Amino acid sequence: MRLVSETGQNFSVFLAARMVFVTVLLGVAILFRDENVGAMPDLLLFLGNVTLSMAGWECYRRRRNSELLRWVTLIAAIGVDTLVLRHAGGANSEFVFLYFFSIASAALLIGLLGSMTMAIFSMAGFAYLLQANSTGVGAQFQLRLFVYGTNFFLTALLSSYLCEKFRQRERAHSKILGELAQTRLDTQAILDSLSTGLVVVDGELKLRYSNPAGHQILGLCEKPKPSEVEEVFTEGNPMGDAIRKVAANQCDGKRMEIELTYAESAKAIGMTASAFFDTKGDVRGYILLFSDLTQYKLAEQSERIQERLAAIGLLARDLAHEIRNPLATVRGCVELMNHSEQSAQDLATCGRLALKESDRLNNLLRDFLTFANLDIPNKKIGDLAALVRDQVRELPLSISVSDELPEHLPMLFDSDQMTLVVGSILLTLAEWSEQNGQIQLKPTNSSRSGIRFLLTDRVIPPEYKEAVFQPFSHIHKKSHGLALPTASRAMHGHGGRISLDSEPGLGTWFEIELLK
After folding, report:
1. Which of 99, 304, 320, 436 has its CA 20 to 30 A from that of 290?
2. What global pTM score does this model have?
3. Distance separating alpha carbons of residues 286 and 275, to the nearest angstrom
4. Residue 153 confidence class, pLDDT cut points 50, 70, 90
C-alpha cells in the first residue's frame, strides 16, 4: 500500500526488480541460445538493461528522481522490452508479458496518463515485432494487433483504476495514522504535564510508563532508568505493597495514604491503585496515581492548631466570664460580713449566698474538667434501653414519659459517658418543657442503632440547633451550658452522632445514633 503513495522513495525498488527480472531472462537466453548464433546481441541487451537500471538508481540516490526521469525510464524500458522480444522470438515470444509489466509500472509510477502512453508505445513495439515476423499487413496482422492493443489498453485502465483506489486508501490510511500520531503526542503531552504522579505496570509489575511528576515525587532524576522506578515498587516498599493489595483484590480503587522515607526527610503520599483489563476481562496491569501530601498535611496541621487555639481562647473567655460573676457575689458577701453593724440574720443570708456561689463555682469547674478531660470511651456491650430507663427515673414527677423503646437495645458504648449523654438530653428537655410536657422515647427512623427523645408540643428557635452544642451558649436557664457540649464530644468519641431538630405541630427532639 505504501508503495503507491511513496513511489518516489520506492523507485529504486522498481528499478532493481526490473533489472534482476530482465537480466535473468537474458541470462537464460544466453545459456540456451542456438550455437550457430553469436552471444553478442544478448550481451548488448544485457549491458543496456544494466546501464538503464543503474542510471536510474544513481539519479534516485542523488535525489534527482524527477517526473522526466520516470518518463525516460519507462519509455526506455519499452524499448528494451521490444529488443528482448525481437531477440527471443518476436511477436510469438513467451515474454510478451513484459509489455504488461511496463504498463502496470507506469500506472504505479505516473498514473492513468503514463499507463495509457506506455500502452501506445507497447502497441507500437508489438506492431514492429509483427511486421518483422510477417510479409505484409494482412488480416492476421490487424487481428493480432487489435487483440494485443485492446489488452494493453485494458491493462492500462485496470491497473490505473486499482492504483488510484490504492492511493485513496493510502491517503485515508495516512490521515488516520497522522491523527493517531497527533493523538499520541497530545496524550503524551497531557500525561507529562500532570502534577499528579502516574505509573503503569503490567501484570508482573514491570514498568510500562511513568511521568515526570511521578519521578519528582519519588525523588528520582528527571529521566530515570526503568529499573530505578521498579525498585520503588518492590515487595516491602509501601507503594509496592499497595499494588500487591490491588492484585489480591483487597483495595482496588481505594484512596490510601502512606509515608515514604528518604535519606533526609519523609513524604506523605496519597495514592489510588486500580487494575485495568483487556477486552476479555483479564488483568493487563495496574495504574497508580499518587501525589505529595506533605505540604497539604503541614498546612492542615497548622490550620488545626490555629482552630484549636482559637477555640481555647473563646472557651477561656467564656469560662472567665462565668467565674467572674460568682466571685463578685462572694466578694460582695464577704465585704458585707466585715461590717460590724450587720445583724445576725443579714450575716447568715450573706453566708448562704456565698456558699451557693461557691458551689456554683465548684460545679462549673467540675463540669469544665469533665468537658476538657473526656477520655477515650471504654466501649463494652450494654443495654442502651435499660440505661435510658434508669435516667428517666431521675426526672421530676411532673414530666410524663412515653416509652416506645424495645425491651432491649444491645449496643457497644461506654456506660459512664453514655449516662452523661442521656442525662444531659433528658434534663435539657425537662427544662424546656417547663415541668408540664411529655417526652416520647422511640427508636430512630433510620435504624435501630439509636434513640429519639421527643418533647411534644414544644418548638425552639432555629438558633438553638447549633448553639446548644457550644460551650457557654447561655440558652439554658438553670445550667451554665457545658452538659450538651460534653455530650457531643462523648458521642463523637463513640463514632456516633447527636442532633437537635424541631418542627411545629410535632415538637422538639434530640437523636443519638451509635455504630452497631
Report:
1. 304
2. 0.44
3. 4
4. very high
pLDDT category at 57 given cuts 50, 70, 90 is low
Q: Identify whether the C-beta of residue 311 lies closer than 8 Å to the C-beta of residue 290.
A: no
* 217 φ/ψ angles, rounded to the nearest 5 degrees: -65, -40
CA dist 73 and 106 (Å) reads 10
Of 510, 508, 511, the C-alpha closest to 437 is: 508
CA–CA distance, 114 with 68 (Å, rounded to integer): 11
Spatial separation of the C-alpha atoms in residues 287 and 301, rounded to whole Å: 30
Write down how long the chain is.
516
Instruction: Supply the DSSP string of 207-269, one letter for each residue.
Output: EEEE-HHHHHHTT--SS--HHHHHGGGSTTSHHHHHHHHHHTTSSTT-EEEEEEE-SS-EEEE
pLDDT digit string, tens, across residues 226-238: 777 777 777 777 7
86/42 Cα distance (integer angstroms): 11
Q: Which of 424, 437, 438, 400 is nearest to 478 (CA)?
A: 424
Q: How far apart are the C-alpha atoms of 100 and 95, rounded to whole Å?
A: 10
Three-class SS state of 508: strand
| Ramachandran angles phi, psi of 239, nearest 5° | -75, -40
Beta bridge partners of 455: 439, 508
* Residues whose CB falls within 8 Å of the CB of residue 287, separated by 6 or more in sequence, listed in order: 198, 199, 200, 273, 274, 275, 276
Q: How far apart are CA 441 and CA 384, in angstroms?
A: 12
List CB contacts of 498: < 8 A, sequence separation 6 or more. Answer: 421, 425, 469, 487, 488, 491, 510, 511, 512
4 residue type, one letter = V
In DSSP notation, 61-72 reads: HTT---HHHHHH
In Å, how far are 118, 153, 212, 465 from 166, measured between CA atoms? 20, 20, 42, 78
* Residue 245, amino acid: K
For residue 235, what are the CA distances in angstroms to 227, 245, 271, 444?
14, 11, 17, 48
- Give the span between the Cα atoms of 479 and 430, in whole angstroms: 12
Looking at the chain, the number of H-run helices and the number of E-run strands are: 16, 12
Ordered DSSP codes for 75-102: HHHHHHHHHHHHHTTGGG-GGGHHHHHH
